[in-house]
Amino acid sequence: MAHSVFKYRTGEAYPYCYKYPQVALTADCVVFSYDGKDLLVLLIKRGQEPFKDRWALPGGFVNPDETAEQGARRELLEETGLEASHLEQFKVFSTPDRDPRQRVVTVPFIALVNHKSVAGGDDAAEARWFPVDKVPPLAFDHDQILSEARTALRRSLYFSPVSFTLLPPQFTMPQLQRLYEIILGRKFDRRNFARKMNSLGVLDFQGIESAGNDVVERKDVPSRKPSIFSFNRVKWSRMKDESDTNFEF
Amino acid sequence: MAHSVFKYRTGEAYPYCYKYPQVALTADCVVFSYDGKDLLVLLIKRGQEPFKDRWALPGGFVNPDETAEQGARRELLEETGLEASHLEQFKVFSTPDRDPRQRVVTVPFIALVNHKSVAGGDDAAEARWFPVDKVPPLAFDHDQILSEARTALRRSLYFSPVSFTLLPPQFTMPQLQRLYEIILGRKFDRRNFARKMNSLGVLDFQGIESAGNDVVERKDVPSRKPSIFSFNRVKWSRMKDESDTNFEF
DNA sequence: CCAAAAGTGTTAACCCTACACCCATGT
DNA sequence: ACATGGGTGTAGGGTTAACACTTTTGG
Hints:
The structure is a homodimer. Chain A is built from 5 helices and 12 strands. By secondary structure, chain A is α+β, with helices and mostly antiparallel strands. Chain A has 2 domains: 24-157, Alpha-Beta Complex (Nucleoside Triphosphate Pyrophosphohydrolase), CATH 3.90.79; 163-242, Winged helix-like DNA-binding domain superfamily/Winged helix DNA-binding domain (Arc Repressor Mutant, subunit A, Orthogonal Bundle). The N and C termini of chain A lie far apart (47 Å). The mean pLDDT of chain A is 86. Chains A and B meet through strand 1, strand 2 and helix 2 of A and strand 1, strand 2 and helix 2 of B. Chain A binds a DNA duplex through residues 172-174, 189-192, 194-196, 199, 219-227.
């Protein structure tokens, strides 16, 4: 390994000295959102080497007084202005040479954000949403991280209704269904899907899509107006206490 | 933080110098096994401070040229002589002061071992199997790690038959059932359990328990002799390719 | 009036659950 | 003989899966 670890060399350039070899710790975020049509991931274009001009997951070094999760939250805010309503760690990537400069261990997080709060790309870095099935090749091992994040997200969906944090407070049944279909990679029958969702008892009926409603209206497309629902957190947490609820499809 | 990070100090005692603050990386193993009756965890008694004489999970520092998983495998072998037939990373623990000496980030692994290969505690360290429900208070944050490992194990069982790696090659249906019951914390009906397991199509019938069979015979207890099964890895992997198999109970 | 999307109910297959009795074995 | 644990089948309830037509709306 040609990593920048120096024995017996110190001064301004290498001021942090330890008894044993250490690693740098970063936290990366796989930020998912949903625009009602596609599942999107947030990527940043790198400004420096290595992998200059390649797209990468947002993330960065964890400070000495932070947990990985706090670091992830901070980096995400700094780089994209986003606050994750759901942050979930799912693995560690520790291959010694995954960063060519020095050994970097990364803790990636699945971050789910509501798509309303769009990423205002900050100063230097360019940030953009990509549909998950159309991401370009990424820097480092981020392709692999993204792929494992998708698997982990699929699994989470079996145990809790994380998907609701991807939706606006008001949403329609077809939107919810599309989201499930994208994440799980499976098609569902409209009627059966709606029946199941309603029977879970965590949805509140809110009315029909209309100008008075703060749901996104689509006026371009000719169709009947869908019903609007919202997610009832109280009912969900009550339900969680009672038993290992079964959210599978 | 009173951690041992020194600026501008070097020499034999602190020979590893870096540009940015670093962390030490350890890999811990939550080693489960099953003796046909209890789910067991392997613990080691600590020989030094901090937490001298407290029980702890086996584990140790990851070398510069190893992934966390390789480190876990090596430490496990060094400390207990065990080889894990299933190693699964499930989380990272990165609270800054979880080790009082310096910042240590740990990657814990669920290690499943076949109970035949018992832990021959090595030189200094004392190693012992504890039934999971009777573990003493552990060093560091290992209580929490253990508790999360049990949750992760339960979840794994929904997606793949990891439990088979805890059983000897030949096992009986009641043994398998007990294992499921312990991990999932739920009781099952004998008939329904056997029916479901058989219907999964990954078990091979091997005969009836007898002296000619290498399954553990119990001669102390008066009862009818059970049938013996083995796990068919080939059928399982074929099945995995076909679809997201549903292993839940 | 046409195309697009949403709403709606019923039936059959399957799976999970619950349940009781007999058999083989060792003491 | 008896106590322990293992084996076995069936009936009822619930859940899932499959299926087609009508309504609303915008163009």
